Amino acid sequence: MGDDINRLHHVGHVVRDMGAAIGLYRRLGFSVPESLPLSVPRQAGAPGVDPWAGAGVGPGVGAGDARVSFAEGFVELVSAKTPAPRAEVPCVEGPRTEGVRALSAGSPDIQSAAGRLESAGVDHHGVRVVRRPLVNPAGPRPEPLRYLELDAPEGRLAVADNPALPAPADHPNGAIDLVECLLCVADADLPAVSRRYETYLGHAASGTSFELGGGRVTLVPASGLGALLPGERPPAQLPGFAGYVVLVRDLEVAERFLRARGVPLTQTPSGDLFVPAAAAHGVAIAFRQAD
Predict the structure, then answer these.
(1) Which run of H or of E encompasses 119?
(2) Residues 5 and 212: beta-carbon distance below 8 Å
(3) Structurally, what CATH architecture does the domain formed by 7-161 represent?
(4) What b-and-e string marks burial along 58-86, b requiring 16 or more CB atoms within 10 Å of the CB?
């Protein structure tokens, strides 16, 4: 097992109506930047090409997106209206429903991760570089980011640099960080998908979870999803991402905030609260009490 992947980087939430999705996330108490137009990453013309250089920098890639930033990870809202070429937060082309369609793990050494995957016989598209505009007091500036992608039945899997993140947003719901992503898997396929993620992440599973620093990826058998997230049904296409979890400073405060805004909430057997996928553009969004 390697140590070249050490955290959850982000999840990509594909939506059909970006304005409605941003409105929902703000209603849920997440801070979503006001600045529009939404950011569009730019990609270098070849693997490893510096996007700061004038030559070889391609046009904007993917659809416009918005980011919900936490202490170490983030949620990317991506428009499903425009097919996305390979990019930092690509969406899956074709007629798929809304929901999480991308998962990226963070790496302190992406070249090492690329080499490990190649040695394991895992096809990827090479280490590429994108730059995306970041807004700061001096105005927008490009942020370079290296990443690699793997195609998977559940969407796009990626490994990305662990960049220096800006100060996390102050979320009215008290959210601190992205701590878990739930992948629903057909029961019979669970062993094979677990082996695939063990290779991808470079970590052995602990039960059905892969621990990544303070976060984890959890595989959920389709037959057990309703027990974990009461009332939820498996995605129509398996494997498929069923939900993600954010940590909050005070779950009771977050619950009062959400209920005051008429947000539907369900409690899990472990005490988390979640917004059903039917009310959150195709993915269950759960809230968990911080230690």
Answers:
(1) helix 110-119
(2) yes
(3) Roll (3.10)
(4) eebbbbbbbbbbbebbbbbbbbbeeebeb
Tokens in use for 12? 């990509």
Q: SS3 for 61?
A: coil
The pLDDT tens digits for 235-266 are 999 999 999 999 999 999 999 999 999 999 99
| Tokens 């977050």, located at residue | 254
Question: Length of the chain, please?
Answer: 291
The ranges assigned to domains in the chain are 7-161, 175-289
CATH architecture of 175-289: Roll (3.10)
Closest CA to 255 of 237, 278, 271: 271
Sign of the Cα torsion 25, 178, 76, 236 reads negative
Location of structure tokens 């990826």 = 217
pTM: 0.84
Structure tokens at 194: 């677990």
Structure confidence by residue, pLDDT tens digits, 31-52: 998 654 444 444 444 444 433 2
Q: Measured between alpha carbons, how far is 130 from 142 in angstroms, rounded to an integer?
A: 9
**Nearest 10 degrees: CA dihedral of 251, 252, 255, 259?**
-170
278 has a pLDDT exceeding 50? yes
Could you give the C-alpha distances from 288 to 123, 168, 172, 185, 246, in angstroms and in order? 35, 18, 15, 23, 6
Q: Do domains 7-161 and 175-289 have the same CATH topology?
A: yes
Q: How far are the Cα atoms of 152, 177, 234 from residue 168, in angstroms, in the given order?
A: 30, 9, 32
Query: Which amino acid, residue 180?
Result: E
